[in-house]
Amino acid sequence: MSTRAGILEISAVLEATGVGAYDGAAFEIQNKAYLVVAGQIVQVEARHTAAIREIDERTADNPVPLAFEQTLRPQQVLDAVNRLMSSN
Fold first, then answer.
1. Whole-model pTM?
2. Residue-range domain boundaries for the chain
3. In terms of CB atoms within 10 Å, which of 8, 31, 37, 39 comes out highest?
4. pLDDT tens-digit readout, 7-17
5. Angle, to 10 degrees, between the axis of helix 74-86 and the axis of helix 4-25?
6. Contact between residue 80 and residue 72 where contact means Cβ atoms under 8 Å apart
7. In angstroms, what CA-CA distances link 68 with 12, 21, 24, 65?
């Protein structure tokens, strides 16, 4: 995907998947210091997701459509990334 729309689409999927992956991983993180760092990272990923949605004309009118992003388990993360890999 070498078009602007294609790059935005891939970016949106990767950022949203990152948010879901960090949220899902939180269940597995037992070290509180690591959990804090993961929480800090997921904040940034969520901002990236909203920024990409704002730039993308297909989603610009509602860059934050949900109060909470979907929490993803490891297989869901792999499935999302594999769909991207197989579409190219």
1. 0.82
2. 4-83
3. 8
4. 998 999 999 99
5. 160
6. yes
7. 16, 13, 12, 9
